[in-house]
């Protein structure tokens, strides 16, 4: 009786095998079409270019004079990049001159180095390959085919290879390699140290994070000391402040002082410029702003905690005490250290 079912079993297996072969054939046809598209574009625009490694094309290359890119020692590449489609349209850029040329530049927008986290599963394979052989200070323009713009393709030896769809876009990537680091903290520490030396009298960091037993990440310096004899404030005290927020490149991204906003080109007639109410607390982490009791970033709270009525101070801190990995709008990218000048003033 069991023998009667064998033809049915073989038929089912054959159907599965045929379906699998059909899918593979479709994928191969799609891949071939994508490769023809790339080859045609190269033939028209850069006929002398040849693919390197897994298939990116280095179209222009200006060597740098700094340290050679070392993926074994560095996981973070800091780059100023512009991404285009193959018709030349810019999808994103960190190049300030190009942004001005395009008319997309804004007063508070961030233009400068961003990071690539160069690790399996965290960065496109084609982007990783574009760094090979570069030195810090170098510039490149590369064409990255669509099938190399996937995280899964990089892990293909584990069986995760995905074919790109026929309507996927190839990418023109222009970038300069500005720096390379082992992690996302060291560069911030260097930037903060330089900022302190230039604008804060060279004060040392006073925040202990536990990294290699060092204190780092928070800098504070008084610009005007407390003129009052009794500076103690109960936890239920209400005080008022003026403030100005800057990136470490000097760009002012926020202020409640009208004249400062006008000087730095960020004045808005729809905004109210007046001292901001601060709700004091028994611990710095409980300090809030305005009657709505909004919670400022931790570095801002820590700076207020150091101050007394009548004082003015400057603070700078790394991203973990600021806007962290998410950043804040177009003004503050992820993992960006920032600075504030804070002035405790009389009630308006």
How would you describe this protein?
By secondary structure, the chain is of the alpha+beta class. The chain folds into 2 domains: 24-181, Chitinase A, domain 3 (Roll); 186-345, Chitinase A, domain 3. It is 24% helix and 24% strand. The chain contains 7 helices and 14 strands. The strands form 2 sheets. Strands 1, 2, 3, 4, 5, 6 and 7 form a 7-stranded antiparallel sheet that branches. Strands 8, 9, 10, 11, 12, 13 and 14 form a 7-stranded antiparallel sheet that branches. The longest helix is centred in the N-terminal third of the chain and has 40 residues, at 6-45. The protein is elongated. The model is unreliable at 152-166 (pLDDT under 50).
Layout of helices and strands:
Blueprint: H1 6-45, E1 51-52, E2 56-62, E3 76-84, E4 90-93, H2 96-102, E5 114-117, H3 125-130, E6 139-144, H4 151-154, E7 171-181, H5 186-199, E8 218-224, E9 238-247, E10 252-255, H6 258-263, E11 276-279, E12 288-289, H7 298-305, E13 312-317, E14 338-345
Antiparallel strand pairs: 1-2, 2-6, 3-4, 3-5, 3-7, 6-7, 8-13, 9-10, 9-11, 9-14, 11-12, 13-14
Summarize the structure.
This protein is 24% helix and 24% strand. By secondary structure, the protein is an alpha+beta fold.
Mean pLDDT: 87
General form = elongated
What oligomeric state best describes the polypeptide chains here? single chain
Report the portion of residues in β strands. 15-25%
What is the CATH third-level topology name of the largest domain? Answer: Chitinase A, domain 3
Structural class: alpha+beta
Total domain modules: 2
Q: What percentage of residues falls in helices of 4 or more residues?
A: 10-25%
CATH architecture assignment name of the largest domain: Roll
Task: Give the H and E element order.
Answer: HEEEEHEHEHEHEEEHEEHEE
Low-confidence stretches: 152-166
Major sheet details: 7 strands, antiparallel
The CATH class assignment of the largest domain is Alpha Beta
The total of helices stands at 7
The beta-strand count equals: 14
Distance between the termini: 96 Å
Integer-rounded radius of gyration: 27 Å
């Amino acid at each position: 009786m069991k023998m009667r079912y064998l033809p049915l079993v073989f038929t089912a297996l054959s159907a599965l095998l045929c379906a699998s072969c059909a899918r593979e054939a479709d994928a191969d046809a799609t891949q071939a079409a994508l490769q023809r598209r790339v080859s045609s574009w190269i033939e028209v625009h850069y006929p002398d270019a040849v693919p390197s490694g897994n298939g990116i094309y280095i179209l222009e290359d200006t060597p740098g004079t700094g340290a050679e890119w070392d993926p074994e020692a560095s996981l973070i590449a800091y780059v100023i990049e512009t991404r285009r489609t193959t018709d030349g349209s810019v999808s994103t850029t960190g190049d300030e001159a190009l942004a001005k040329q395009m008319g997309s530049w804004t007063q508070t927008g961030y233009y400068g180095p961003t990071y690539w986290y160069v690790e399996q599963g965290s960065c496109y394979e084609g982007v990783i390959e574009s760094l090979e052989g570069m030195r810090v200070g170098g510039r490149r323009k590369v064409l990255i085919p669509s099938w190399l713009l996937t995280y899964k393709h990089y892990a293909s030896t584990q069986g995760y290879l995905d074919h790109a769809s026929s309507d996927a876009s190839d990418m023109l990537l222009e970038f300069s390699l500005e720096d390379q680091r082992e992690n996302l903290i060291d560069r911030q520490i260097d930037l903060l140290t330089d900022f302190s030396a230039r604008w804060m009298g060279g004060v040392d960091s006073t925040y202990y994070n536990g990294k290699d037993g060092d204190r780092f990440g928070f800098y504070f310096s008084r610009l005007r000391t407390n003129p009052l004899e009794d500076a103690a404030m109960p936890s239920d005290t209400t005080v008022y402040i003026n403030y100005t927020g800057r990136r470490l490149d000097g760009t002012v991204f926020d202020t409640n002082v009208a004249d400062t906003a006008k000087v730095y080109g960020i004045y808005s007639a729809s905004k109210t410029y007046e001292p901001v109410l601060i709700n004091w607390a028994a611990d710095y982490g409980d300090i809030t702003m305005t009657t709505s009791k909004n919670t400022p970033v931790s570095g801002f709270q820590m700076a207020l905690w150091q101050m007394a009525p009548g004082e003015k101070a400057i603070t700078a801190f790394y991203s973990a005490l600021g806007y962290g990995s998410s950043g804040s709008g177009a003004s503050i990218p992820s993992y960006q250290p920032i600075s504030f000048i804070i002035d405790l003033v009389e009630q308006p």
